[in-house]
Amino acid sequence: MTLGKASLIAAGFAGSMALGVWIAPYVTDRGADAPAVAVAEPAVVAPAPAPVTQPSRAEREARETTARVAAVSPSSPELQARLKPVLASGTDVEKAAAGFNSSEQFAMIAHLARNTGVPFVLLKHRVLEEGRSLTEAVRMSNADIDAGREVSRARAAARADIWSVG
After folding, report:
1. CA distances from 98 to 4, 7, 25, 75, 121 (A)
2. Distance separating alpha carbons of residues 54 and 85, to the nearest angstrom
3. The pLDDT of residue 21
4. Confidence of residue 112 (pLDDT cuts 50, 70, 90)
5. With the C-alpha atoms ordered 134, 136, 138, 144, is the resulting torsion angle positive or negative?
6. Higher-scoring residue by pLDDT: 20, 40
7. Per-residue pLDDT at 126
8. pTM of this prediction?
9. Over 107-124, what HEC string results?
10. Which residues, including other chains, have CB under 8 Å from residue 124's CB and lie 6 or more apart?
11. What is residue 150's predicted lDDT score, i.e. its pLDDT?
C-alpha cells in the first residue's frame, strides 16, 4: 500500500468520525419536541414450546442397537452359531449361554475371553456369580492388560454379532 492510499483511508476514517460526532445530537436528541409515549405493560405470554428436534444419527443408531440387542436371546440358535467359533473348541454353546440375562453380555464375555486369553468360564463366574464388572474380572485375571480398552473392543464385536443376527 502506498503512502497516498494510506493517507486517503486515514482521512476518510477521520472525516466519517467527525461527521458522526456532528450529526449524533440531531439524530438521538428528541428533546421536548417529541410527544410523550405511553408504555403499556406487556401481556403475560406463555413460554414458547421447545423446538422439536430430530435425534442425531448416533442417538438413532444407539436406540436401534439397543432394540436389536434386546430382541435377540442368549439361547438364540443364530447367535450361538455366530459365537461358536469365538469360544474355545469343544465348548457346549448352550451350556455357555445358560445364566445370561442378555445376549450382549454373553457375546461380550465370549469375545473378551478370546481377546484376553482369560478362560470364558472364569469370566462368566466372576460376572454372574460374584457380581463383578467385566473390567474388574479381567483385571483380577491379568493386571497387565488394558481392561477398559479390551471391554470396549469386546462390546463392539458383540454388538456387531448381535446386529448381524437380529
Report:
1. 88, 87, 86, 7, 11
2. 40
3. 79
4. very high
5. positive
6. 20
7. 92
8. 0.57
9. HHHHHHHHHHCCCHHHHH
10. 96, 99, 109
11. 92
